[in-house]
Amino acid sequence: MRELLDAYADRPNPSTVAVVGNQPLGADPARAAAVDACELVIRVNGFKLDEPGEPSTGTRVHAVVFNRALRATPWVFADYPRRCYLLVEPGRLHWEPETLPGWWPADLGQVHVSNYEVTLPLSDALGLPSRTESTWATTGTMAAWIARTTYPEAKLLLTGFSFIDDPTQTSWAHASGDSCIVGPEHQIAAEGRLLESWTRTSTTELLR
């Protein structure tokens, strides 16, 4: 995973990594600049990039962490040959089929993230019984986990994670597209506690 992400980052072994969730956030030129200044920027599922004159979370993206239930926005597959696409599939532990959506680019070349190397260790950290029950982390938390465990020495910048401040929400609002329910397979309070605990260290910063 590290060698793969190194190949798409501004340089191998990036010292700054941003993971951008899909929470709607207001205009903030400083936040947008901080994200775009990172040497590796990871975005999640149906993400949105800033339009000219509307700085919020920046415009750069090196890697995309996504799942089969992706609700595509105009930015998801734009310039896809230049990005790393990491497909997380925790549902394959239980019921999710292997079939890929036919409307994805045929030559997308997505990399399937290992459940045994990523999903289950994260579930263990969250206290989720993913081996026996259909419960697992959100794609956003999986992206943050990939970043933190792949580059433990890097400065990690997190933004767009609504459940850190609102762990009881039952629906998601997105920066682009419709809202949807929080899936019953997710335990976002536990995810919020994990990510918030990282922000109490010197190597992780949360930008609201």
| Helix and strand run | HEHEEEEHHEEEHE
Mean pLDDT: 97
Q: Largest sheet at a glance? A: 7 strands, parallel
As a percent range, the share of helical residues equals 10-25%
Radius of gyration: 16 Å
Tell me the distance between the termini. 28 Å
Q: Which blocks of ≥5 consecutive residues have pLDDT under 50? A: none
Structure description:
With 208 residues, this protein is α/β, with parallel strands linked by helices. It is built from 5 helices and 9 strands; from the N terminus they run αβαββββααβββαβ. Strands 5-4-3-2-1-6-9 form a 7-stranded parallel sheet, sandwiched between helices. It has a two-stranded antiparallel sheet with strand order 7-8. The longest helix has 12 residues, at 115-126. The two termini are 28 Å apart.
Q: What is the strand and helix layout of this fold?
A:
Blueprint: H1 2-8, E1 16-20, H2 29-36, E2 40-44, E3 63-66, E4 84-87, E5 111-112, H3 115-126, H4 139-150, E6 155-159, E7 171-172, E8 180-181, H5 188-198, E9 204-207
Parallel strand pairs: 1-2, 1-6, 2-3, 3-4, 4-5, 6-9
Antiparallel strand pairs: 7-8
